[in-house]
């Protein structure tokens, strides 16, 4: 499965001990931002932080693991907040995310991926980016047992129009 998404970052969710999800993250290739200073996932309705990390996830070829509470699957809305630093000016910084289940794209329903646009990035700046993701209706949710160990999330980001190019 990893060969299929070569060159992108991936998150591999695995159920562990029946009460947490293990998040493996691997970055391959260089990212547009220099440092990912911190990241968190919140319940989008209450604002409560469910997971946070100060690991620099932007280092190519490095695998990171984080324990994410299973209760995140019960959230109707999840907020992802990323704090990053960039030495370069970027005109239109964006991120694309796809979710695979057993090698098939399941989210979004199209093969293009979710598109998140940050926009202009000032050179030598530190920025915080919050994205909100709504869950599917409960009737369309897949059971945790099916997802366990079979989900892969890919993420890639880029600056479409670098200043001066």
From TrEMBL:
Domain GMP phosphodiesterase delta subunit: 35-152
CC annotations in GO: cytoplasm
Family recorded in the similarity comment: Belongs to the PDE6D/unc-119 family.
Name recorded for this polypeptide: GMP-PDE, delta subunit
Phylogenetic placement of the source organism: Eukaryota, Metazoa, Ecdysozoa, Nematoda, Enoplea
